[in-house]
Amino acid sequence: xxxxxxxxxxxxxxxxxxxxxxxxxxxxxxxxxxxxxxxxxxxxxxxxxxxxxxxxxxxxxxxxxxxxxxxxxxxxxxxxxxxxxxxxxxxxxxxxxxxxxxxxxxxxxxxxxxxxxxxxxxxxxxxxxxxxxxxxxxxxxxxxxxxxxxxxxxxxxxxxxxxxxxxxxxxxxxxxxxxxxxxxxxxxx
Length: 189
What we know:
Blueprint: H1 11-25, H2 30-34, E1 36-39, E2 42-45, H3 58-73, E3 84-89, H4 95-106, E4 113-119, H5 122-134, E5 141-145, H6 159-167, H7 175-188
Parallel strand pairs: 3-4, 4-5
Antiparallel strand pairs: 1-2
Helix pairs in contact: 3-4, 6-7
């Protein structure tokens, strides 16, 4: 704007800007407004189909990489050993699984690690798949829509209730928007 003061702002640009400000004022997270979130050095598409990846979750990726590295390099493996399986349950945008797949490929682990990503929401699975394609790892991640509660005779906790219970007590912009998205995905199954 400052570089082109003489040209001014068009009514369409002003309306777009006002719309973005209204979205933010209503509590929509900046990441949803931008449609992007950086996670573990990678840029992911994000929207209401899944929760926004949190910076603190990068610690999980780091720890998983430590475990994978130790398992693959700590002791000799049989040539017919099955791949080390990582399973991202409730994958959402796919950030965890995709970051792991990208980093394992970079480290040369190749087919020594298998990746599985599941979510109850078909919309979230579509977003995760889009992100995997964008990062060039869709060929090494098995995506599936799944409700893990269907695999158990007794369900000890409902992740949607846990999330709502935790984030409901936290202050901060964007939490309610993400909660609605998560609950809607959970209910839609």
